[in-house]
Every structure is written in structure tokens, then in C-alpha cells.
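call fold target=L-threonine 3-dehydrogenase, mitochondrial
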Amino acid sequence: MQIIRMLRHVAVARGAVQRPLRSCWMSVLPVRCLGNSSSQIPENASFHSAASSEADPPRILITGGLGQLGVGLANLLRKRFGEENVILSDIKKPPNYVLHRGPFIYADVLDYKRLREIVVNHRITWLFHYSALLSAAGEANVPLARALNITGLHHVLDIATEYHLRLFVPSTIAAFGSTSPRNPALDLCTQRPRTIYGVSKVHMELMGEYYYYRYGLDFRCLRYPGIISADSEPGGGTTDYAVHIFHEATRRGKFECNLKANTRLPMMDVSDCLRATLEVMNAPAESLSMRTYNISAMSFTPEELAQEVRRHLPEFQITYHVDPMRQAIADSWPMNLDDSNARKDWGWRHDIDLPELVTKMLNFHRSDTRVAQTN
Ligand SMILES: NC(=O)c1ccc[n+]([C@@H]2O[C@H](COP(=O)([O-])OP(=O)(O)OC[C@H]3O[C@@H](n4cnc5c(N)ncnc54)[C@H](O)[C@@H]3O)[C@@H](O)[C@H]2O)c1
Ligand SMILES: C[C@@H](O)[C@H](N)C(=O)O
């Protein structure tokens, strides 16, 4: 870090710093590329994004916000920073309840100019980049996954750098592959995934870190496990079974699982995931010894999850009809993540383990079923 700062200092002094043009390199910039920034990168560039305070809250944009995680994140951030300071965006049409809870805007991350306009017009200071095509959906449409997960990311990186945003992009257990250590996977280890989703997330981790060292972009990233949420549907991942099982258990008393009974994967309740996201964004820059952290909570197999469900619903039955594509993906992912760096650096702790998760999910779906029956 010290060496990089020194090199940057020398380069700046010589006026020789190059900046990225969205997809190529040049030393003289047209106005549209990272061009507003002063011609020199400040010495303390790593710390120049807006911090949060009660008096001066960040102005936040969430991309891809109508998926499994975005609405919950917006709720959490609005409680903390005020309803008007958090803008949810997506290319999907928002349901009414989303519109009633705070600002929503159409934003396609593939439209660089419009995205830049939004950041400027709404004076955005923090950006949570959630748009992505997940593991199973990505394998079903590789060109779209490549465009959304890689080109979309490049747009976000350039805009975040140009306007000195603090940028959060989630990574995933999918960023590991079959040659990574599986129990546990470390923050720094071999990463050779073989899904377009995993490859694009490794690319994202490296690009974010590169922009941090090269341009001082305040990039922060967590590798999420499979996330379990009650009131939002997953968008085409390999861990989706662990969300769907609760819906089916309460409605039909049985569930057909598309992964093998003994497939162990890291998982996390959505409340822990979103709290971790806010905590790492709020962490003082000096406390972060790295820019991409594993976070971990629990790890279970479909059979173990079914057993826990049976403690509440003794008649519950699980059967297995394995999807070979999803199974191959799951078999290449770690069974556990080592998150000791997150725990040490910024005090990460998970609150919810498997028994609490199952109680919470079943309570939600039982009351949801009762409401549906009375309507
Ligand atoms: N849900 C999980 O278990 C999990 C685990 C690890 C990491 N993550 C990461 O967290 C983030 C959010 O995940 P999620 O589960 O909410 O995803 P999701 O698939 O449910 O939602 C993604 C959203 O992106 C939107 N989108 C698609 N194309 C777009 C475009 N061109 N411009 C803007 N938005 C577009 C979709 O409409 C969708 O609402 C993703 O980056 C994902 O990789 C999720
Ligand atoms: C693990 C995560 O990235 C996502 N839920 C998926 O299965 O694709």
C-alpha cells in the first residue's frame, strides 16, 4: 500500500497518471470519462468518499433493487438515513408497496449515460450495486450474464470513481471453485470458478480492488453465502431451495429438492446479511485491512434443514429430484467460509443460526398462509 501510494505520488507529480476510458486506456481524457475529477489523485484518495453522520447522511442509490435483497436493504438504510436519502432502482416495474415506502427510479446499469445522470441529478454519494444475473440464471443465458455482470460493473466502477462515491458490490460463495479450499474457504485462496456468475464476481472483486489501489475508489465488498429471506423471492440461484422449502412446507407439507440430501453450503439470514452490508459501509476506512471479506453464519445440507423443519412440522416430507446443472455448481462451492478477518477488522458477528432461522421462516409463512386463507 505504502509503495503504491509512493508510486502514485511520483506519477502524479510528473503529470503521468493514466485514467481508464470505459473500456480502454488513454492518458488524455475526453470530458465524459472520469473527467470531472481534478487532474491529480489526492494522497489520501482512499478515504475521500462521503462518510455518514446524523447531520449529513449519505445520498444512496441501489441498483437492481427489486430482486431478493434490494427492498430489504432499502428499508434498513431508510431507517438509518431517512426515507428520501435512499433511492431504489431497477428495470422492473415496482409493486405499489415499494412505491409507498420511498423513492424509486428506473435505472438500467447497461445505460452508462443515464446512470451517470442519475448519480449527478440526485447527488448520490453511496452506491450499492445489486444488479446481477445469479448462478443458475447466468448459466441459462451467458451473454446476458456477461453483459449485466461485467459491462454493468464497468459502468458502475467508472461512475463511482468519477464522482468519488463509496461503492458496495456484493460477491458470493460462487466466486470460489472446485480447486478452492472447501471447508473453510479463506478470504485469500485459489479462485477458479466455472460459472459465468462466479467468473464475473472474481472479475468484480479484482477490478474493485484495482480501482481502489489505482484511483482511490472507496470500494467495499462482502462475499455473501446463500441468503434466506421470507418476504422476497430468490432470483435464479443454486441456493434457492433453502428459501422455497419453507413456502412449500407450510402450504403443502412436502418439498421436492433439486440438490442432493448431503449438499452442504454456507447460508445466512437476510437480516444478518443486510446488517453486515451496512456495517462494512460504515466502517472507518482505517479498520479495513482488505476490500473483499468473507462473511459467514451457518452451513447446512438439505437433509439437516428438513430435520429442523420437522421439529416444527413433524409430518413434513422432503424428496429429491436432482438438477445436474445446479448440483455441479453446488459441488464446486465451499461448504464453509472463514470470516475471521471480518470479525477481527470491523467486528462482524452473525445473530441467527439454523434453529432461529427455521423458526423465523416458518412463523412468517404460517401467518402469511393464514392471511391468504382469510382473504
Ligand atoms: N440472494 C443471494 O443468495 C445472494 C448471495 C450472494 C450474493 N448475492 C448478490 O447480491 C446481489 C443482489 O442479489 P439478489 O438476490 O437480490 O438478485 P436478484 O436476481 O434477485 O435481483 C437482481 C435484480 O437486478 C435487476 N436487473 C436485471 N438487469 C438489470 C439491468 N440491466 N439494470 C438494472 N437492474 C437490472 C433485476 O430486475 C433484479 O431485480 C447480486 O449482486 C448477487 O450476486 C446474492
Ligand atoms: C450463492 C448466491 O450467489 C446465489 N444465491 C446463487 O445461488 O447463485
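return ok
The chain has one domain: 17-231+268-298+335-352. The radius of gyration is 21 Å.
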